[in-house]
Design a protein that fits this description.
- The protein has helices spanning about 15-30, 70-80, 95-105, 120-130, 135-145, 185, 210-215, 240-250, 270-275, 290-295, 325-330, 345, 365-370, 375-390, 395-410, and strands at about 1-10, 35-40, 50-55, 85-90, 105-110, 150, 165-170, 225-230, 255-260, 280-285, 300-305, 335-340, 355.
- The protein contains 15 helices and 13 strands.
- The protein has 2 domains: about 1-170 and about 395-410, Glycogen Phosphorylase B (Rossmann fold), CATH 3.40.50.2000; about 185-390, Glycogen Phosphorylase B (Rossmann fold), CATH 3.40.50.
- It has a 7-stranded parallel beta sheet with strand order 3-2-1-4-5-6-7, sandwiched between helices. Strands 10-9-8-11-12-13 form a 6-stranded parallel beta sheet, with helices on both faces.
- The protein is an alpha/beta fold.
C-alpha cells in the first residue's frame, strides 16, 4: 500500500512519545513492504531509510489549526498517488480524514487521546455554552468519515462507533534497540568524575572524555540498586513521587537505592527539591531518544509512578499505552507502577514487575524494597523482556496494522 501518514504537530526526529511513535510506525510499515510517506514537522535531519518524509507543520505553529492543512494534504496525496491516508488524531485536526474523503480513498485515524469529553471538561462546557456544540460535532463528523480506527483503548471513541471499524492494539517499543546488555555492569563502572549528588551537577553524567563517557552513563557506585525514570516531567507522570520515596527510604536508613532521571519538564523543580538531601539521585535533562537504550540497560528497576488523578482526562480511565513501560520491559527491567486497571493488563504483578496501591501511603517505597533482591529483579526482568518482544514491540504493532490495512484496501 502507498500510505500517507499525517502528523503535522509532531516533530521527527524528536524525544517525546508522539515523535517516537510516528517514526517507529512509519519505519515498521516500510519494513513490511509498504510505501510510506509522512507529513510532519522536521526536527534535525530526517531519519535515513525507506520512509519518505515531507515537511508540514500546523499553520502558524498552532496544532489547533491543523484542520486548515486539508487542501495541502490532499495535494500531497494526489502527488504521491496515495491509496490511503492515516492521520494521527488531535482534537482540532481532521485534515487527513477530510483529504481522504475528497480523494475517495480510505481514511484511517490513529487515536491515542480521547475523542469523547471527560467529566468536567472545560472544552465541553464551552461547547455547550455555544448551544450547537461545534467542537463535539466536528469530532463526530471526522469519526463518521473514518474507515478504520487504530487505538489501544476503544473507550476513547464515541460509543456509537462500530467495533468492526476499530483495531485495538497497543503501542510499543523498538525491541531491537531497547534490549538487555551483557555489559550492563560495565555501564555502571564510571570514572567517578560524575559523582555529584543531584541537581545541576548530575548533567555531567553525560559528559566526560570520549569513549569512557559513552560506556558509563551511570556514576561509579556499583553497590547501588539503580532506579530509572524516563519521560516528560509533567505532574501526572509522578516523577516527584519517586524522589520523595527515595528520600523517605534514605531518612529511614535504607541507603541502597539511587536514581537517574532522564528528561525534563515543569515538575523537575519539585523533584529536585524532594531529592535535595539524598545522595545518588541524578537529573540528566532531555536526551536524544537513540541514546535512551544504554541508559535503561544500565539500570536495575524501571519506575513509572503515574499520578492519574493529576490529569483530568484520565477520569475516563487510564487510556494510555505508555511507551516508557514498554521500553523498560524491552530492556529487561522489572517495572514499578501503580495498580491501575490498564496497567494491570500490561505488567503482571510479581511476574514482570511490582504494582503498588497508589492510594496507600509509602506504597511506592515498599515496591522498591520488594525489588532490592538481585535474583528477584533478574527473574522479573527476563519475563518482562519476553512479554515486550511478544506483545509490545513496534514490530508486533505494525504486523497487526499491516493485516488490517491490506484487508481494508482489499474490501474497499
Amino acid at each position: 500500500m502507498r500510505l500517507l501518514y499525517v502528523a503535522p504537530d509532531q516533530v521527527v526526529p524528536g524525544t517525546l512519545g508522539g515523535s517516537v511513535h510516528v517514526q517507529a510506525v512509519a519505519e515498521g510499515l516500510a519494513d513490511l513492504g509498504h510505501e510510506i510517506h509522512v507529513a510532519t514537522s522536521p526536527g534535525a535531519a530526517w531519519p535515513r531509510g525507506a520512509v519518505h518524509w515531507h515537511a508540514m507543520s500546523p499553520p502558524l505553529g498552532q496544532p489547533v489549526l491543523r484542520w486548515a492543512r486539508a487542501a495541502a494534504v490532499a495535494s500531497l496525496a494526489r502527488e504521491i498517488r496515495a491509496e490511503a491516508i492515516m492521520e494521527r488524531y488531535y482534537n482540532f485536526a481532521g485534515e487527513g480524514v477530510l483529504a481522504a474523503r475528497r480523494l475517495r480513498i480510505p481514511a484511517i485515524l490513529e487515536v491515542n487521546a480521547p475523542v469523547v469529553d471527560y467529566p468536567g471538561s472545560p472544552k465541553a462546557l464551552v461547547d455547550r455554552a455555544l448551544i450547537v456544540e461545534p467542537m463535539r460535532r466536528w469530532r463526530e463528523r471526522i469519526c463518521r468519515l473514518t474507515d478504520l480506527f487504530i487505538t489501544p483503548s476503544a473507550e476513547m471513541l464515541p460509543a456509537w462507533v462500530d467495533p468492526a471499524r476499530v483495531l485495538r492494539v497497543e503501542w510499543g517499543a523498538d525491541t531491537r534497540h531497547f534490549r538487555p546488555r551483557a555489559d550492563a555492569a560495565r555501564l555502571r563502572q564510571g570514572s567517578g568524575a560524575a559523582s555529584d549528588r543531584q541537581g545541576s551537577g548530575a548533567a555531567r553524567l553525560r559528559q566526560g572524555s570520549g569513549a569512557a563517557s559513552e560506556a558509563a552513563p551511570f556514576p561509579k557506585d556499583p553497590a547501588r540498586v539503580w532506579c530509572v525514570f524516563a519521560g516528560a516531567f509533567r505532574s501526572w507522570h509522578g516523577v516527584a513521587h519517586l524522589t520523595s520515596a527515595l528520600a523517605r527510604l534514605h531518612a529511614a536508613g535504607d541507603h541502597r537505592f539511587g536514581a537517574v532521571l532522564l528528561g525534563d519538564g515543569p515538575e523537575r523543580p519539585a523533584a529536585e527539591r524532594a531529592a535535595r538531601d539524598v545522595p545518588g539521585i541524578f537529573f540528566t535533562g532531555a536526551i536524544p531518544h537513540d541514546q535512551l537504550p544504554r541508559y535503561l540497560a544500565a539500570a536495575d528497576i524501571g519506575v513509572a509512578p503515574f499520578d492519574a488523578m493529576r490529569h483530568r482526562p484520565l477520569r475516563l480511565g487510564f487510556y494510555w499505552s505508555p511507551l516508557k513501560v514498554f521500553e523498560y520491559m524491552a530492556c529487561g527491567l522489572p517495572v514499578v507502577a501503580p495498580r491501575l486497571p490498564r496497567l494491570t493488563t500490561l505488567v503482571e504483578h510479581g511476574r514482570e514487575g511490582w504494582l503498588y496501591d497508589p492510594e496507600a501511603p509509602r506504597a511506592l517505597d515498599g515496591a522498591l524494597t520488594a525489588l532490592a533482591d538481585a535474583p528477584t529483579r533478574q527473574r522479573l526482568g527476563a519475563a518482562a523482556r519476553e512479554r515486550a518482544v511478544r506483545d509490545f514491540s513496534w514490530a508486533a504493532h505494525c504486523r497487526a496494522l499491516d493485516a488490517r490495512l491490506r484487508e481494508l484496501l482489499r474490501t474497499r
